[in-house]
Amino acid sequence: MQEYDFVHRMSVRDYECDLQGIVNNAVYQNYLEHVRHEYLRHVGINFAEYAARGIHFVVTRAELDYKLPLKAGDEFWVGLNMKRESRVRYAFYQDIYRATDDKLSIAGKIIGTALNERGRPEVPEEVAKLLGE
C-alpha cells in the first residue's frame, strides 16, 4: 500500500446505498469531494473566503476505477496525494479502502483548478504556496 499525504476516515450511511445494497456509484464522488475539501482546509484554504473574493475551486475532470463495492455500515478510509500538473491544474490522486481489510474500493484521479472573477483558470500565488509550490 502506498503512502499518502492526507488520510480521512468515514463510514457508509444506509441512504447512500442503492437497491442492490451497495453504495451508489455517484456517492463515491461525494466521498472524494468531502476528503478534498478536508485536505484543502487542512492546508489553510478556506472556500468561503476565496469565493467572496471571486475565486472558485472547480473540478474539470474525474476518473474513477471501481474495484470493490462498499455496503451500509462499512467503515472506510480515503488516501489523498496531490500533484501540480500544469500552471493551472492540480491532480488529486484519491483511493478509497474498506477499513476492515484495507482492500481497494475505488481508485480516482480528480483534476481541479481555480477560476478567477472572470471565470478564467488562474491559481493565485497564495494558493500555490499553500499547496506546496
The overall strand count is 5
The biggest beta sheet reads: 5 strands, antiparallel
Query: Globular, elongated, flat, extended or rod-shaped: what is the shape?
Result: elongated
User: What is the third-level CATH name, the topology?
Assistant: Thiol Ester Dehydrase, Chain A
Strands in their spatial order, largest beta sheet:
1-3-4-5-2
The count of helical stretches stands at 3
SSE pattern: EHHEEEEH
Oligomer kind? single chain
Query: Taking all residues together, what is the mean pLDDT?
Result: 94
The first-to-last residue Cα distance is: 26 Å
Whole-number count of domains: 1
Rg of Cα set: 16 Å
Q: Which class in CATH terms?
A: Alpha Beta
Examine the secondary-structure arrangement and name the CATH architecture: Roll
Q: What is the structural class?
A: alpha+beta
Helix content: 10-25%
CATH superfamily: Hotdog Thioesterase
Strand content: 35-45%
Low-confidence stretches: none
Set out the fold topology.
Blueprint: E1 6-11, H1 25-42, H2 47-52, E2 56-66, E3 75-84, E4 90-98, E5 103-115, H3 125-130
Antiparallel strand pairs: 1-3, 2-5, 3-4, 4-5
Give an overview of the whole structure.
There is one protein chain. This protein has 133 residues and is an alpha+beta fold. The protein has a single domain, classed as Hotdog Thioesterase (Thiol Ester Dehydrase, Chain A). Helices cover 23% and strands 37% of the residues. The protein is built from three helices and five strands, in the order βααββββα. It has a five-stranded antiparallel beta sheet with strand order 1-3-4-5-2. 21% of the residues are buried.
